[in-house]
Amino acid sequence: MQHILELKAFFFNAQTDYLPYYKHFEVTLDSGATAAEMLAKIKEQNENFSFPEENLLFRINGLVVTGEQKMDEVIERLGSSLQIDPVNAYRSNNGLVINDDDFMQSYALLAPYASEEDLAYYQSLYALHYASETEKFDHSYIGDAVLLLAHRMIEAGTEHKEAVLKAVTEVPCGLLSCEYENNLFKAEEHSETIAKLKSMLKYTPKPSLMETLAAGFMKKSKKKSMGSVDLEGKQIAYYTGEKKGRESEIFQKIADANAKAVSFSKADRLAGLSLLESDRKLAYTKAGATLLDALDSGAQILVVEEEEVLSMFLEHFSAIESALGREIDMALVSADEFVAQVNVKAA
């Protein structure tokens, strides 16, 4: 069996280009072909296409894959129209080749307390380091990999526990900025590990003066949840966050209301709730990115599954808009309230 792929591939040469750009290719792959073989097919058509020969790591439709990844699995999940990007476009030197000095710079935080085994473990987390969601919002983020190493060292009984915690905490964007989720094609779940590491901290959040003033302002100008409105003809998006599994019901209710369902890319991504106490600025930025993604996708109403997330959106709405520098003209409603409203109108 063969696969015919329509590819949109990233090009950028730091020596000659001011901005990155994309070129389109059609390639044919045999069943069982790897991601590396797909890239080689692109290079056959354009010799200027560049990718690493060792430690090959890149993104397909935003998900991080290695060169050994079987394309059969990718095509089954993502289809045959694919976008190829560096694992970190911000650090691209030439196409998919990046400057990965940051990987070992993060390790250097713990190097004085680490063993050879610790180093080997850290090096095995190369893909995880570049699959972090947090880095999208702050390029200085130290990465999830070094946090897993810190937890491993502490669990192994290092005598430098306090120094290890201090190293990954007292940086501009470290442990306290981590709301764990990754973009690996083959996802890895480490939320519990990060939560355990945070629980080891002797930390009491102290809001800055600006945050205190903003909090006082928000009490006067927080957004109210949507009341009973005419849903017919409206464009409605649904934010699941972590609580997936109810999509069919909500989309059916949207149809029952004679409204149009709108999809958006961040519908199931975290929105900063866990960061409100430790990194409020990043929490507002993540929340704003979620709301703005829905708005820019055409939503007039956003149905929110998790009550806690909806409360955050509503209570901190003005600060979220300020973090974005844009107004968000979109009604917000809880999933339960939305379902109840549709049921009442249908009765």
Amount of beta strand: 15-25%
Structural class: alpha/beta
Low-confidence stretches: 208-214, 217-221
The CA-CA distance between the termini, in Å, is 53 Å
Q: Structurally, how many domains make up the residues?
A: 3
Radius of gyration: 23 Å
Number of helices: 14
The CATH architecture designation of the largest domain is 3-Layer(aba) Sandwich
Silhouette: globular
- Neighbour order of strands in the largest sheet: 2-1-5-3-4
Main beta sheet: 5 strands, mixed
Question: What is the fold's blueprint, element by element?
Answer:
Blueprint: E1 2-11, E2 21-30, H1 35-45, E3 57-60, E4 63-66, H2 71-78, E5 81-86, E6 92-94, E7 97-98, H3 101-108, H4 116-123, H5 126-130, H6 144-155, H7 161-169, H8 191-199, H9 209-221, E8 235-239, H10 247-256, E9 260-262, H11 280-296, E10 301-304, H12 307-315, H13 317-324, E11 331-334, H14 335-346
Parallel strand pairs: 1-5, 8-9, 8-10, 10-11
Antiparallel strand pairs: 1-2, 3-4, 3-5, 6-7
Question: What do you see in this structure?
Answer:
With 347 residues, the protein is an alpha/beta fold. It folds into 3 domains: 2-98, Ubiquitin-like (UB roll) (Roll); 101-199, Alpha-helical ferredoxin (Fumarate Reductase Iron-sulfur Protein, Chain B, domain 2), CATH 1.10.1060.10; 212-346, Rossmann fold (3-Layer(aba) Sandwich). The protein has 14 helices and 11 strands. Strands 2-1-5-3-4 form a 5-stranded mixed sheet, covered by helices on one side. Strands 9-8-10-11 form a 4-stranded parallel sheet, sandwiched between helices. It has a two-stranded antiparallel ribbon with strand order 6-7. Strand 3 and strand 4 (63-66) form a beta hairpin. Helix 6 (144-155) packs across helix 8 and helix 11 (280-296) crosses helix 13 (317-324). The relative contact order is 0.09. Mean pLDDT is 91; it is low at 208-214 and 217-221.
